């Protein structure tokens, strides 16, 4: 089964379970709305790619880990779009959850998806209890404080920002979770996979900063120019456009070099190269003043 199909099937099962019983209809609807369409599903794809490179001997556990990670990511997008944070009206080419369903339901949707992620891992525990506990631990660490995505959002409220720590928490955390959870789901140690996840995460953040600065809303499927509007720390402001592009390429080269030895090492290197092609900016759609 293709990776995207595995991921979507696992997410679909979780959402269906969350909509079961005598559930509030609008909140139940918002759960599905928040996770579809799924975008590139890049984080769970990386997770499953690492698991496969390491043998993928517990595919049900790998699928659960991939779904849990994507549910956390989708929850973070729902919360990020709220007026108290980015105040974004669009996400993935359609109205953001708070615009479509209301702010209270958006908050509850994000909260429900977070809880659902850990339920998915708990339900998969019988496949390998020790691995499941470690997966829950990794996802908890990379979601909360002091260096998970909650910390990343928190940096935006600080007067003085450590850009490296900010990027590592805001974007890098879930990519570190992806590489580490993929390895753990397949029975490998988590620690050797941290650097790869951190480098991919940093590359994605730099690329996101470039897209925000160079592209328009129609291209992005969400508001553009938000780093400048909200005075957020970003790679373009620190390095300039060309400097940020050079930084992106350096990070991705380091990512390939950091891949731990494993049976699927060559496959992972090809995946990172493909990621590099996807992330490298093309000609600007709007002019950066």
Largest sheet: 2 strands, antiparallel
Strand content: under 5%
How many β-strands, per DSSP?
A: 2
Query: How large is the count of helical segments?
Result: 14
How would you classify the helix and strand content by structural class? mainly alpha
Distance between the termini: 46 Å
Give the mean pLDDT: 92
Radius of gyration: 18 Å
The SSE string, one letter per element, is HHHHEEHHHHHHHHHH
In spatial order, strands of the major sheet run 1-2
The percent of residues in helical segments reads 55-70%
Low-confidence stretches: none
Q: What best-fitting shape do the alpha-carbon axes yield?
A: globular
Structure description:
The chain has a two-stranded antiparallel sheet with strand order 1-2. Strand 1 (90-91) and strand 2 (94-95) form a beta hairpin. Helix 2 crosses helix 6 (103-124), helix 4 packs antiparallel against helix 9 and helix 9 packs across helix 10 (194-214). The mean pLDDT is 92. It has 14 helices and 2 strands, in the order H-H-H-H-E-E-H-H-H-H-H-H-H-H-H-H. The chain has 289 residues and is mainly alpha-helical.
